[in-house]
Structure formats: C-alpha cells, structure tokens
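We emphasize that the prediction below concerns an isolated chain of 234 residues; any contacts that depend on oligomerization or on bound cofactors are therefore not represented. The input was used exactly as deposited, without trimming of termini.
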Amino acid sequence: NTGKINPIQLLYTATPFANVFINPYPTNSDTLDDLYPKDFITALPKPNSYFGTEDLFGRFSADGDSDPGELDGHDMVRNIPEEDEAMLQPLRRDDRDSFKPQMPPSLEDAILYFLACCAARKVRGQSNQHMSMLVHTSAYVVLHERVAEMIEEWISKNRATLEINSSPLLTRMATIWKRESQAVDESITKTKRVGFEDLKKQLGAVLAGLEVPVENGRSDDRIDYEKCPRTYIV
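Result of the prediction step, given as a token string:
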C-alpha cells in the first residue's frame, strides 16, 4: 500500500462510440489520457419500451453462429429507386438553382401512408398530439423550398380525391395501409390495429390541419410545437 488512491475512471453515456473520436494523447504529450474505461465496460439492459436502431436495422451476430433470423430488424425500411432519387435532386451541384423536383411514386406512397397513420391516430383518440413527417432530400436550401412547394401542390391537387370513396388514390392508400400494417408483428405495440374503413373517416380532418413548413436556418416558416397540436410534413 503506497498510500495513494487510485483514481476511478467512470464513463456514463448513451453514446459509447463518442470516445472513438477523442484523441487519447494530450497535445505535446506521449501519455495516454483517454476517457475510455481501462478496467471494464458494461452495457445497461435495454428497457422493454426502448426502440432503437437495432429494432429497425437488426445487427450482425457477434460470433457468426447465431441464426440471422433472430437478429433481423423489423420490416420498416423502404429503399428508394434510383429513378425516384433523380426526380428529387440534381445530379450535379451546379444544377441546383435550375433544378425543379418532381413527385416520385415512392414519395406519394410515403405521404399516403403518413396521412393514413395520422387518421389512425385520431381514431385512437390522439388528436391532441403532434404528428410529423420529415422529407429531407437535399442539403440545399433552394431545394427545401421547391420540394415543399411540390408537396403542397400535390396535396392541393389530390385533397378532394382522397375524400371520395373508391377513388383510385384512396384505393391505393388502402393497399399501402394493409401492406405496411401487416409487415410488422403486432407484438411491438399495445395499441390495436385500425381498419381502413375506420381511419378513412378521419382523413378530412387530417387534411384540414395539414401544414408543410420548411425547417432550416434561413426559413421564416419554422415548425412550432409550443402551441396547439400540429400535423406537419416538414
């Protein structure tokens, strides 16, 4: 016993990989001074209510022997076709000012599903809560504004059609709702599934409250969750 107290390194964080970006050597020194614990590291158990990236994307087996099916994420991610991508962003940076985005089928499907989800939440009694969808296709501010205009035009053009029984667009929404609702096991939530016949009665209310703000550092039309419940496509 030298009489000295050994310091205890304690790191308590929700982002353990942040230490990867820390320089373990102070400036002009060869002495290791890292935040990463030198003696042990332990992971806290995941709460039952936690839903994170592993649930979405799955993970690889650490030993390579586990059944991959047990490590798969939920069927929630949809890949966007290259032709749809080309409709939303220019191939070259220099074309951004003259580029005019067009509504691709995959974004139409996403908007239809979002509107159906909002209607389903109203059926569940969640009308007093915020409902938001984020569309982010480019880092360029000028394209944020044009994509917002494109979405607003699409909503305006199809608003009446979405409230007509058996219209092609409403039938398409019903197909999307059935497909996506059945893609994920019911066990991930305690809420009951909502049938399309019930949710379509709320579509008019969803569309009436729908807003399409632009959220970036230059925008004057920012999102605002401080007041009444909002329904946003941001």
